[in-house]
Specification:
The strands form three sheets. This protein has a five-stranded parallel sheet, sandwiched between helices. It has a three-stranded antiparallel sheet with strand order 8-10-9. It has 16 helices and ten strands. The two termini are 47 Å apart. By secondary structure, it is α/β, with parallel strands linked by helices. A hairpin with a 2-residue loop joins strand 9 and strand 10 (360-363). The chain is globular and about 65 Å long. The chain is 51% helix and 11% strand. The protein has three domains: 21-217, 3-Layer(aba) Sandwich (Rossmann fold); 223-293; 304-376, Winged helix-like DNA-binding domain superfamily/Winged helix DNA-binding domain (Arc Repressor Mutant, subunit A), CATH 1.10.10. It binds adenosine-5'-triphosphate (ATP) and magnesium ion. Adenosine-5'-triphosphate is lined by residues 7-10, 18-21, 42, 44-50, 193, 221, 257-258, 261.
């Protein structure tokens, strides 16, 4: 079956479907090989997870390191983090080593209740439930001891790291920092999309992780390199896209990876019938994707207060909105007062519905911004 080369799922498929990131890959690789931990920051959907997956699959790293990855996005406590981390370690290791589970729980004694006999196979397996994690701080310490004593050095990639700041227990970050510091044979990658939180955690002198990691900020993929990548995939399947059309897609989404990928994925499918991509085809593809999401956007929009709705419409209209609490902005968009704008913006920002870059605000989901403009743009 022919694969659409413009991957839009979170799964990393293969290097040939991964565009550029050579510089960032070399920085990440060199950090790992030279004993530096990395803090990787970018806006949502720019390609952090893809970059990590791309680098840790390199042959030399696969051979030299055991890699564990975990995404903390759904977690709300250290207990949940322990569950994810222990399942990741057991899942990765159990096929490699006979009696691995015995060895793991000989280190992580506090998680021994997770070892159970499978009645069907009669074999012991690790099947831990949240309720069985009764001493999470002790479990964390034991897991780090296991990593420290691992015969092969480890890479531990922790995605959406800023989530830890929301945990019910307050000392987790300091605890983690002290374990990371002592774990000499493991390299850590801390990735996150909340720039404000990540900067605070890693750049603020009062924070435990202050200046402990090498920073890597992920920006958009270079336009020329993205063009070469896109063209080659279209040509390889016997169709084509012009540079002008590619530029329209790239510019429309300011090069933001997932949005560009989403439309190229759509155009690639259409080009299989029409051979080449026209400008009309791009508008159709964008409208189609926005339409697919319109019910969700409608429900989302309904859930906001009037002040938030008006502000979202105003920011969408401007694309990148500067000085949103200025009198000029408030008047231009017939908003109430600078202070109502400020409080609406704060809530929307905390929910990550809007994004802030220096003093400039934009709608985080670029398709939502297009939907807002389609419905409310002419008012
Ligand atoms: N270099 C690349 N070449 C091609 N596609 C890419 C590249 N990087 C990322 N993508 C694609 O873009 C989308 C977003 O990437 P990814 O999930 O890595 O972003 P992220 O920054 O981790 O997002 P989030 O903040 O939501 O976790 C995915 O569909 C991925 O396949
Ligand atoms: Mg990610």
């Amino acid at each position: 079956m022919r694969i659409n080369p413009f991957i839009i799922t979170e799964d990393y498929v293969a290097p040939e479907y991964f565009c550029d990131r050579e510089f960032e890959s070399s920085v990440l690789r060199s950090n790992i090989l030279n004993g530096r931990n990395t803090v990787l920051i970018s806006p949502r959907r720019m390609g952090k997870s893809g970059l990590i997956a791309h680098v840790i699959r390199e042959r030399s790293l696969v051979e030299a390191y055991t890699t564990f990855t975990l995404d903390l996005f759904p977690t709300t406590s250290l207990t949940e983090m322990i569950l994810l981390l222990s399942n990741e370690i057991v899942g990765k290791m159990k096929s490699k080593e006979e009696r691995f589970i015995d060895r793991f729980v000989s280190y992580v004694k506090s998680l021994r209740p997770g070892v159970k006999m499978n009645p069907a196979s009669g074999e012991f397996e690790f099947n831990l439930s949240l309720g069985e994690i009764t001493r999470p701080q002790e479990s964390l310490e034991e897991i780090f001891q296991y990593l420290s004593d691992s015969p092969k050095p480890c890479i531990v990639a922790i995605d959406e790291f800023q989530q830890i700041a929301e945990y019910s227990e307050k000392n987790v970050i300091a605890l983690l920092r002290s374990h990371v510091q002592k774990c000499a044979n493991s390299r850590f990658i801390f990735a996150g999309s909340n720039r404000r939180m990540m900067d605070k955690l890693f750049n603020s002198p009062s924070e435990p992780f202050y200046l402990s990691c090498s920073p890597l900020y992920l920006d958009v993929i270079d336009k020329d390199k993205y063009w070469v990548f896109a063209r080659s995939h279209f040509e390889a399947s016997g169709c084509s896209i012009s540079r002008e059309c590619f530029d329209i897609v790239y510019d429309r989404f300011e090069g933001h990876t997932w949005y560009v990928q989403r439309i190229l994925n759509e155009l690639f499918e259409r080009a299989q019938n029409d051979i080449f991509v026209s400008e009309e085809c791009i508008s159709e593809a964008v409208d189609f994707v926005v339409k697919l999401n319109s019910k969700a956007f409608e429900d989302q929009f309904k859930s906001y207060s009037d002040a938030q709705k008006s502000l979202l419409i105003a920011i969408a209209k401007e694309g990148n909105a500067n000085g949103i609490t200025s009198i000029a902005f408030v008047r231009r968009h017939s908003l109430k007062t600078p202070s109502t704008v400020q409080s609406a913006a704060r809530q929307l920002y905390e929910q990550e519905v809007i994004t802030k870059n220096d003093t400039c605000y934009s709608i985080t989901n670029r398709f939502f911004a297009i939907w807002l403009n389609n419905i409310y743009g002419s008012r």
